[in-house]
Amino acid sequence: MRLRTTSAALAGTSVLLLLTGCGAADMTKQASPFANAQGAKTVTLSVQSWVGAQANVGVAQYLLEHELGYRVDTVQVDEVPAWDALSQGRVDAILEDWGHPDQEKRYVTDKKTIAPGGDLGVTGHIGWYVPTYFAKQHPDVTNWKNLDKYADQLRTPESGGKGQLLDGSPSYVTNDKALVNNLKLNYQVVFAGSEAAQITQMKQFAKEKKPFLTYWYSPQWLFEKVPMTEVKLPAYKEGCDADAAKVACAYPHTPLQKYLNADFAKTGGKAAAFLKKFQWTTEDQNEVSLMIANDKLTPQEAAKKWVDQHRSTWRAWLPS
After folding, report:
1. What's the angle, vertex CA 224, arms to CA 58 and CA 14, rounded to 5?
2. From CA 290, how far away is CA 50, in angstroms rounded?
3. Residue of 311, 129, 158, 162 lying closest to 232 (CA atoms)
4. Least buried of 27, 73, 118, 161, by fewest C-beta within 10 Å?
5. pTM to 2 decimals?
6. For residue 42, what are the CA distances in angstroms to 47, 69, 303?
7. Phi and psi at residue 194, in whole multiples of 5°?
């Protein structure tokens, strides 16, 4: 997503990455030679390393291969370089974008080298969260104005005498440091190092029933294992995050979008038509994500299980 970039492990012969992990390498120059190949029945998908994006790609890949007869190659590219790769035809599609207005203007509006692929069907949201067991004990902690009251309880050895706001990788593009500064909170943003490390830390806190404050996002499978309650930040209003240094508002709710290389959108045949129709719910995505992240299935194994159980859903995505 726009505010998150991570990495993970290789799956099979394709560069489809499993669980979230530390900062993803920029593989723009190592994209598949099959991307945008003239006359070849191949598709190259950009796969972001967070598990929801892996679920999208896993199911799309499975259906493209097993129902439509395509070879699918997948490449992990960081979020902004992925737009460059898509524009250049190094990849054919991005299936989950959390909003990159600068890239959208450059490539969709001005250069017209990227075409919108429609809604994914999932709405994403980033926020600050505390574990629900702590929110039940201290209901007022869910209002940002009361966070300083709990700074001592949320202090860690890494937060330098202040309360800790746990983030994932330093490569994440977030508003958190600006929010802490502009809301004048007695907190320090502490990076776990990767999303996987962040998840491990949150699970450990929850196991010990310790309080924590963390940057997190939905949809995300971890809510099933560690129930969390969002802290209300000042209400989001259009444009309130336009100046990154002056942000003092909540993150928006973002309908997640798909994007296709413009040439592929026109000449990609059934594969392009299928990807434009690909649309599922948050519950669908979480079902596959949980199988990948918690049950340790590969994205293709999880995709097969989901496909076997949801024929009526995916049949509507297939071109006639």
Report:
1. 15
2. 12
3. 129
4. 161
5. 0.79
6. 16, 9, 19
7. -165, 165
The DSSP letter of residue 20 is -
Tally Cβ neighbours within 10 Å of residue 12. 10
Q: Which two tokens stand for residue 84?
A: 């460059």
Asked if 234 contacts 249 with a C-beta cutoff of 8 angstroms, the reply is yes
User: Residue 227: phi, psi to the nearest 5?
Assistant: -60, 130
Query: What would the mean pLDDT of 42-64 be, rounded to a whole number?
Result: 94
**Other beta carbons less than 10 A from residue 38's beta carbon:** 6
CA Rg value for the chain: 20
Q: Which of 178, 226, 163, 175 is nearest to 198 (CA)?
A: 226
According to the model, what pLDDT value does residue 20 have? Answer: 33
Distance in angstroms (rounded) separating the CA atoms of residues 197 and 174: 17
Residue 25 binned pLDDT confidence (cut-offs 50, 70, 90): very low
- φ, ψ of residue 277 to 5 degrees: the values are -85, -20
Whether the per-residue pLDDT at 272 is higher than 90: the answer is yes
User: At which residue do the structure tokens 């006639």 appear?
Assistant: 320
Binning pLDDT at 50, 70 and 90, where does residue 289 land?
very high
Angle, in degrees to the nearest 10, between helices 51-66 and 299-309: 70
Q: Averaged over 203-225, what is the pLDDT?
A: 95
The stretch 35-56 carries a mean pLDDT of 81
243 within 8 A of 154, measured Cβ to Cβ = no
Tokens 């039940």 locate to 136
